[in-house]
Write a structure and sequence with these properties.
There is one protein chain. Helix content is 39%, strand content 16%. It contains ten helices and ten strands. Strand 6, helix 4 and strand 7 form a beta-alpha-beta unit. Helix 1 packs across helix 2 and helix 7 packs across helix 8. The longest helix has 15 residues. The chain is globular. The two termini are 29 Å apart. Bound molecules: NADP nicotinamide-adenine-dinucleotide phosphate.
């Protein structure tokens, strides 16, 4: 596994991690695939995808429970857990309580990275960021960040922080969703904020793409691996594909440690413009 620096810190995180949307359910819990999900997460960790992204929203907390169960067998410091607070829980006390509920479901005593899942214009950002900083002070959260924030929203959030800074903006980014290239990506690259690319496989569309399959032939790689490698060759970008199938996990883990050449990057970008 290839590692990248987390934001403006000296901590290293895997360039490709694991998403968990629909692991443990979507908007409601689903217990029917628990064993398969735990097994998939364990295999992914063994393959080096020790960065795991979950949220209190996923399966209404059941995703966090499954992640907690899967990581139990591994040394805590070898795993990097990301979870997110819902936009309706961004009031000071509600955010603190949400973080403790997540910790309980994860069965952990700290969260590596806690993200605001999406902005909530009805709640003053200062109140939210004060609560985020309080969690860092208490030691139950190591790093803080945001998700689905634009440049202005990142600036407003950062202006409220006195002791720390956001290290991540988790946003949709893939060959079929490149809107962040206009402003969010350059801002993050300039300010050393990691862009954690969600839906990096276009929700499963890109692995089926014929053009990417053809590019892959040259490298002995699949379309999914080309799509992920294209993301992680960019400064400050890591990706969190979700996979429950073991062959998908293996492929995703092997999307790092090599590079597309410059000409192919240009060709791919032209094709998906
Ligand atoms: N912050 C946010 O607002 C937000 C929003 C959306 C997503 N996310 C996070 O980002 C993660 C990833 O996004 P996503 O799950 O929506 O979409 P995605 O990762 O782009 O795509 C997931 C789909 O691709 C398939 N897949 C994975 N690896 C593959 C491979 N090597 N070859 C072929 N197919 C493959 C999976 O199949 P199998 O599962 O059957 O293996 C699944 O159907 C989420 O799980 C979540 O953690 C965050």
């Amino acid at each position: 596994m290839e590692f990248k620096r987390l934001g403006n810190t000296s901590v290293k995180i895997p360039a490709v991690g694991m998403g968990t949307w629909e692991i443990g359910g979507g908007l409601t819990p689903d217990y029917s695939l628990d064993e398969e999900a735990i097994q998939a997460l364990k295999v992914g960790i063994e393959l080096g995808m020790t960065l795991i992204d979950t949220a209190e929203m996923y399966g209404r907390g059941h995703s966090e429970e499954l992640v907690g169960e899967a990581v139990r067998a591994f040394p805590r410091e070898s795993i990097f857990i990301v979870t997110k607070v819902l936009p309706e829980n961004l009031r000071y006390n509600e955010l603190i309580e949400a973080a403790y509920r997540s910790l309980k479901r994860l069965n952990l005593d700290y969260i590596d990275l806690y993200l605001i899942h999406a902005p909530n214009p009805r709640i003053p950002i200062r109140e939210t960021m004060d609560a985020m900083e309080k969690l860092v002070d208490e030691g139950i959260v190591k790093f803080i960040g945001v998700s689905n924030f634009g440049v202005l929203q990142m600036e407003q959030a950062r202006a409220c922080l006195s002791k720390t800074d956001i290290v991540v903006n988790q946003v949709e980014y893939s060959l079929i969703e490149r809107r962040i290239e206009k402003d969010v990506l350059p801002y993050c690259q300039k300010n050393k904020i990691t862009v954690m690319a969600y839906c990096p496989l276009g929700r499963g569309i890109l692995p089926k793409n014929q053009f990417l399959k053809e590019v892959g032939l040259k490298y002995g790689k699949t379309a999914a691996q080309i799509a992920l490698n294209w993301l992680i060759q960019k400064d400050e970008v890591v990706a969190i594909p979700k996979a429950i199938k073991i062959e998908h996990l293996r492929e995703n883990a092997e999307s790092t440690g090599w590079r597309l050449n410059k000409e192919d990057v240009e060709l791919i970008e032209k094709y998906f413009r």
